[in-house]
């Protein structure tokens, strides 16, 4: 039994099922991070003193991480564009780069976190660090999740290209939407936590 | 949206992606540089959020193809933005409106 | 795998697939790890009913303590051990455990899984003429995530210190310093929220994309609209609670101070927290979900009642379009009323007025919905079948629940009523003789579709009348106690307060009613199981109904429809003038005028 509009677009909506599904999921993610940003606001306005981000956090490292994520967004969309151009080889290259960029991001975060712990800075130290660790931690979990899906699509999942290229391209596009969203969250996280 | 796009269309899109990439890098440098100026809080927040919003719009509009998306998606996101603002602002406004004696 | 053509909802004739694609599924893939929405719907419904029963047992135990404070419970009291009921007599900590878990289980493990997971999953694809949900595997994942969440919640009773005991609302800072059970509660909630998110995405995409040919939005049965709005509420309101859960876990496990204010002293000891946190933030994030959640509890019920009323009055629904617009307006407003649960957190008049105003505004679509359903009865040829009895009872019961909410939503009138039994009476009226009755109506109504057999009408009436009587016996006196000032969550039910002495006797009456209500469910349980094998066998459309699910066989096969259905008209073409029958199904292609 086949579910209609899994790949083809339904005429009146102009969309396939997966595309709507991923946007709905992203809408829920906006609310998830929204609540954490609201928490940031409440913690900051309720604090007697609030440190400047650059006095505790490592701005140069985080700037590099910002560049890493933005670059990975480009490689991600290029991976999808390669499939649209029927270039599976280029897809593998760009998707592979995207996953590697993810490792790079996590590596830098690992350095950041361990440095903090080494200096005795923990979520329990004050509310600034609490929201810093929670926001970047949850974001990091989303990076890991996105990497896992991208790795699957780069590896075993790419079998689908041979039997249903359009379906596979859509999957890559949808995974890309999630990955871009992860980049988008960081675009706001970075200045809010590190620069203000 | 780009599902039945021709090869030429994709080429044009790729050129756009590169342009957006460069713009994002520049804006990243701008936001870090401005932060070094240590502007007063209101100004610093405004600049940071404006730059972030521009960057975010570019990612959403071009990488996520939101500029050429369908009505249904716009409606869903519209309501989401409204409720996002509600969860962000209403607790804050309540915090700043305490009961007075 | 071939791509599907652009024709709408091509079901793929059900018999085809057996030959073409799938070998016969083994027991585990067919009945346990199924991706068929009907099987998943039944899994949700049965699991939900079991949790409803369990949650009911918890409160029946509490009602012993409330009726006879301090008295040992004969026979079963000692079974709970010395840590909870020494000598068979309930400790306050255990009372709190029962209270917190009763609320949690009823709302999150009972009502919503049955109303949304059960009814939504089973009925929605059938009513829109689809072969299944848009994402069958995600559907399966959502059930098992719920199941895991349920197991987690049950497991929390067995950790040292017992299950969560800070109310179903888990207010900080009490919940942050509470025992292990609270951590398990938070983990359980994460499973449940995940389940909900997956399900809501599925429902929305299915409704938008998989409607059969001819089934435009305004030809959708009202039940489908109700489930659609409910799904949006779940999608957008749950994530802030998930965030809050993560924050509370951070406070409990990583020692952060999101919700811990500075200088907190517990039992003479200053707590070792950095402080600077805000307990009210927890309340904001919790109620941001929990208010829309109450509409999640009621909207599917409205959906079911609408279907049963139209079918059993042999008339179209009155004000269908107004009802649909009311649903959306209600859904939108539900996101901006939440702090009417927080009037006493030190809120000033500006914000109190804001939330009070939005709360009054939201009563408008609520009343529009109830009034339309009431007017739908006017001039109808009412068939007093068991589903209709429950649906009819829903109307005044929800009316009482809704009206008693009004003084709570007005910040001044809320002053004497906040956190009293009045509140408990209010919300139980909407959920218990409200939603639960609607869910019973739905079970009796759709049981023949799911099983191919009718439930017994006699046992149905034997279930209905005593239930109606006793459920009012439990909750009506709560308004009396509340207005006399009896607080909620008191382990002795108010017995130690002098001002309550004239209303304390109601506790015995309410407890007796609760235990009698339990007995009144026995005919239902017997009926439910007995009818599977011995109920009257029926065909596709035993109720002479008009919506698309009645075009499928009873029970429907995998893929649902033998030929792809098409909708030729609106959903409630009952008693159309000039027709020989008093109903014209949506799926019937031509109607010969008499």
Characterise the protein shown here.
The complex is a heterotrimer of chains A (196), B (101) and C (594). Chain A is mainly alpha-helical and 196 residues long. Chain A has 7 helices and no strands. Chain A starts with 16 loop residues before the first helix and ends with a helix. The mean pLDDT of chain A is 97. With 101 residues, chain B is mostly helical. The model of chain B has no long low-confidence stretch (mean pLDDT 92). In chain B, α1 runs antiparallel to α2 (41-63). Chain B has 3 helices and no strands. Chain B has helices at 7-36, 41-63, 71-95. The longest helix of chain B is centred in the N-terminal third of the chain and has 30 residues, at 7-36. With 594 residues, chain C is an all-alpha fold. Helices cover 60% and strands 1% of the residues of chain C. Chain C has 17 helices and 2 strands. Chain C has helices at residues 14-20, 27-32, 37-67, 92-127, 136-155, 174-177, 180-209, 222-254, 279-313, 320-333, 349-377, 386-409, 414-417, 421-451, 457-483, 506-520, 522-534; strands at residues 265-266, 269-270. In chain C, strands 1-2 form a two-stranded antiparallel ribbon. The radius of gyration of chain C is 25 Å and the shape is globular. Mean pLDDT of chain C is 94; it is low at 1-20. The B-C interface holds B 72, 79-80, 82-83, 86-87, 90-91, 93-95, 97-100 and C 208, 232, 236-237, 240, 278, 280-281, 284-285, 288, 332, 335-336, 339, 342, 346-351.
Give the SSE map:
The complex is a heterotrimer of chains A (196), B (101) and C (594).
Chain A: H1 17-46, H2 53-56, H3 59-84, H4 88-118, H5 127-154, H6 160-163, H7 165-195
Helix pairs in contact in A: 1-5, 1-7, 3-4, 3-7, 4-5, 5-7
Chain B: H1 7-36, H2 41-63, H3 71-95
Chain C: H1 14-20, H2 27-32, H3 37-67, H4 92-127, H5 136-155, H6 174-177, H7 180-209, H8 222-254, E1 265-266, E2 269-270, H9 279-313, H10 320-333, H11 349-377, H12 386-409, H13 414-417, H14 421-451, H15 457-483, H16 506-520, H17 522-534
Antiparallel strand pairs in C: 1-2
Helicity range of chain A: over 70%
Shape category of chain C: globular
Strand content range of chain A: under 5%
Number of strands of chain C: 2
Helix content of chain C: 55-70%
| Distance, first to last CA of chain C | 48 Å
Return the structural class of chain C. Answer: mainly alpha
Q: How can the largest sheet of chain C be summarized?
A: 2 strands, antiparallel
Number of strands of chain A: 0
How does the overall form of chain A come out from the CA principal axes?
elongated
Cα-atom radius of gyration of chain A: 19 Å
The oligomeric status of these chains comes to: heterotrimer
Strand content of chain C: under 5%
Order of helices and strands of chain C: HHHHHHHHEEHHHHHHHHH
The average pLDDT value of chain C, as a whole number, equals: 94
The averaged pLDDT of chain A comes out at 97
Q: Tell me the greatest interface.
A: A-C, 50 and 58 residues
Rounded to an integer in angstroms, the radius of gyration calculated over CA atoms of chain C is 25 Å
Strand order of the largest sheet of chain C: 1-2
With helices defined by DSSP (H or I, 4 residues minimum), what is the helix count of chain A? 7
Major sheet of chain A: none
């Amino acid at each position: 039994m086949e579910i209609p509009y899994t790949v083809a677009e339904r005429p009146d909506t102009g969309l396939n099922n997966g595309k709507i599904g991923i946007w709905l999921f992203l809408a829920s993610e906006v609310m998830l991070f929204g609540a954490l940003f609201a928490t940031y606001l409440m913690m900051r306005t309720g604090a007697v003193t609030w440190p400047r981000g650059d006095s505790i956090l490592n701005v140069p490292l985080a700037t590099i991480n910002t560049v890493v994520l933005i670059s990975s967004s480009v490689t991600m969309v290029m991976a999808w564009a390669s499939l649209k151009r029927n270039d599976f080889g280029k897809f593998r290259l760009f998707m592979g780069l995207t996953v590697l960029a993810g490792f790079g991001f996590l590596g830098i975060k690992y350095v950041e976190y361990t440095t903090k712990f080494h200096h005795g800075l923990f979520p329990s130290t004050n509310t600034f660090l609490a929201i810093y660790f929670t926001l970047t931690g949850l974001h990091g979990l989303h990076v890991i999740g996105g990497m896992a899906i991208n790795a699957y699509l780069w590896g075993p999942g790419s079998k689908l290209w041979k039997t249903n290229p359009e379906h596979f391209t859509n999957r890559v596009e949808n995974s890309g939407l999630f990955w871009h969203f992860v980049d988008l969250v960081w675009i706001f996280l970075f200045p809010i936590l590190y620069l203000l | 949206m780009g599902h039945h796009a021709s090869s030429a269309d994709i080429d044009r899109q790729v050129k756009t992606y590169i342009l957006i990439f460069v713009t994002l890098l520049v804006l990243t440098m701008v936001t870090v540089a401005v932060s070094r100026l240590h502007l007063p809080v209101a100004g610093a927040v405004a600049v940071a959020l404006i730059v972030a919003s521009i960057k975010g719009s570019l990612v959403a509009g071009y990488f996520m193809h939101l500029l050429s998306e369908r009505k249904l998606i716009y409606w869903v996101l519209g309501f989401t933005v409204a409720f996002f603002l509600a969860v962000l602002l209403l607790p804050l406004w309540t915090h700043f409106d305490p009961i007075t004696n | 795998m071939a791509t599907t053509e652009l024709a709408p909802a091509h079901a793929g004739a059900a018999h085809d697939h057996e030959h073409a694609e799938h070998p016969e599924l083994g027991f585990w893939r067919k009945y346990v790890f199924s991706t068929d929405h009907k099987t998943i719907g039944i899994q949700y419904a049965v699991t939900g009913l079991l949790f409803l029963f369990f949650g009911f047992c918890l409160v029946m135990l509490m009602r012993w303590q409330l009726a006879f404070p301090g008295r040992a419970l004969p026979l079963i009291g000692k079974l709970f051990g010395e840590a909870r009921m020494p000598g068979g007599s309930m400790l306050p900590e255990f009372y709190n455990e029962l209270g917190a878990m009763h609320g949690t289980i009823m709302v999150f493990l009972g009502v919503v899984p049955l109303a949304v997971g059960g009814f939504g999953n089973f009925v929605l694809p059938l009513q829109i003429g689809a072969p299944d949900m848009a994402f069958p595997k995600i559907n399966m994942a959502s059930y098992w995530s719920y199941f895991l969440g349920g197991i987690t919640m049950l497991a929390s009773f067995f950790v040292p210190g017992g299950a969560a005991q800070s109310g179903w609302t888990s207010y900080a800072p009490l919940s942050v310093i509470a025992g292990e059970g609270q951590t398990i509660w938070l983990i359980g909630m994460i499973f449940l929220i995940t389940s909900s998110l997956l399900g809501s995405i599925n429902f929305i995409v299915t409704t938008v994309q998989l409607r059969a040919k001819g089934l435009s939005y305004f030809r959708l049965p009202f039940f489908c609209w109700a489930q659609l709005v409910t799904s949006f509420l779940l999608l957008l309101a749950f994530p802030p609670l998930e965030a809050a859960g993560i924050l509370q876990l951070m406070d409990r496990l990583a020692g952060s101070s999101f919700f811990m204010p500075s200088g907190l002293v517990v039992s003479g000891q200053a707590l070792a927290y950095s402080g600077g946190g805000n307990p009210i933030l927890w309340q904001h994030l919790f109620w941001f979900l929990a208010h829309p959640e109450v509409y999640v509890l009621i909207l599917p019920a409205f959906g079911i009642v609408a279907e049963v009323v139209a079918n059993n009055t042999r008339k179209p629904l009155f004000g269908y379009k107004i009802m649909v617009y009311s649903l959306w307006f209600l859904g939108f407003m539900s996101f901006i009323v939440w702090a009417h649960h927080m009037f006493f957190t030190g809120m000033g008049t500006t914000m109190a007025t804001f939330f009070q105003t939005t709360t009054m505004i939201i009563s408008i679509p609520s009343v529009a919905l109830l009034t339309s359903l009431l007017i739908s009865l006017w001039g109808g040829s009412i068939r007093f079948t068991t589903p209709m009895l429950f649906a009819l009872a829903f109307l005044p019961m929800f009316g009482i629940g809704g009206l008693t909410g009004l003084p709570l939503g007005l910040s001044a009138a809320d002053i004497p009523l906040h956190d009293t039994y009045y509140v408990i009476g209010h919300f139980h009226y909407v959920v218990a003789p409200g939603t639960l009755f609607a869910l019973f109506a739905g079970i009796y109504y759709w049981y023949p579709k799911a099983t191919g057999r009718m439930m017994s009408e006699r046992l149905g009436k034997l279930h209905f009348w005593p239930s109606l009587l006793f459920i009012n016996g439990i909750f009506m006196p709560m308004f009396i106690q509340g207005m006399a000032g009896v607080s909620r969550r008191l382990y002795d039910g108010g017995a130690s307060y002098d001002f309550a002495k004239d209303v304390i006797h109601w506790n015995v009456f309410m407890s007796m009613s609760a235990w009698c209500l339990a007995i009144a469910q026995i005919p239902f349980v017997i009926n439910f199981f007995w009818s599977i094998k011995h109920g009257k066998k029926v065909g596709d459309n035993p109720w002479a109904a008009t919506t698309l699910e009645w075009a499928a066989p009873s029970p429907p096969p995998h893929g649902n429809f033998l030929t792809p259905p098409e909708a030729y008209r609106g959903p409630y073409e009952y008693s159309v003038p000039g027709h020989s029958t008093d109903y014209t199904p949506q799926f019937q292609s031509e109607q010969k005028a008499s």
